[in-house]
# Entry
Amino acid sequence: MRCMIVPAGRSVSAYVTYGDECLGIVGPFGVASPWWADVEPVVAHLRDTLGVPVVVLRLVDVDGGVSPRGGHVTYHAEAFARPGPALEETTCDGLNEPQAGRSAWATTTGVRAALQWADDELTALGRAPSGEAEQVKTWNLSALFRLPTITQPVWLKLTPGFAAHEPAVIDLVASVDPGLVPAVVASDLANRRMLLETVPGEDCWDASPELIRTTLTRWVAAQAALAAQPALAAQANLAGVPDRRPQQLTAGLQQLLDGEAGRDLDDAELAEARQLATRLPDLIDELNSCGLPLTLVHGDFHPGNWRVDGGEATLIDFADAYFGHPAFDGERLREFVEPGRRQPVVDAWCTAWMAQMPSSHPARALAIARPLQALSGAVLYQMFLDHIEVSERRYHASDPVAGIRDAIMAARELI
# Structure
């Protein structure tokens, strides 16, 4: 198992508040991790500097860098007690003012409420927290905390409304393969938060071919088992799992081309994209004729969302999961790995599905899925942009157009 090499880190400044009070600013200071959403080292520096518990609420601004890493990043941080050291004075005008699309955990009251909920749930379960919550990640799509308890640590994950189905998805997967997913300790659907058992090990961004093969085989078996349940579509609908069957891409692409993404394409690209839109019904019909069942799709199926501790992988981060075509997961993984390592992914995915559905045509399905999965990603990224606050749009602003361009390129190669 190898881990992905990432470039050098970023510099950071943080406005610090204590409730409605502006305490000042810390920084600039450097951290080793380049990723904007990786706030664990930022919190560690602020805690050491201020001597009190601190959380990062949200990203305020970025100077330089390339999304989603590098440059000089400015955050809004909240102190949970009044610090002893004096901070450099500054004004925090508008920092706490409500903004459309702001995540609940990106507010002073919201993050405190979430941590209190976790404390109450764990205490009721006889697993009271044994120390301070450790913030790992925060951005517009989730916030993640590690909570030490008197038994073993748990994760607190917070998500936006469009990802509230994650606990239900995990339960669906656990119904056919409990060891493939982390156990849900507690969930609060109304407020989009859940507690998960910590999965030991590390994320493997660059998995070995053998790990990819074994994980693919196991995930495909789980998808096939779920697809065999006659009421899966209805069950997924009741659980709030989005229905993203391929046929919905026709309307989705049209909305993209009529909106801001279409305005960012040049005339030739827009014309080719509209031509692709006319081909979509035939491509979708051919995909559906390949003999693979509609089922639960992970939505972001790559080794960065696998945890490994010397054995089989555990899948995490089902926030993008939906009911749809499994070839989209296969294509997501194929495009994620380096070009020279893609054929073994294709072979492993096709072998896994042939074992489950001997009369199917997975190789053809995967080929057709290349432009369709790129379009599906573009539609999803636009949905993110439509539901997050302005300062966070830099994470995804170029993604819908990039997805359309990728789909055009893939469609040119499709015979």
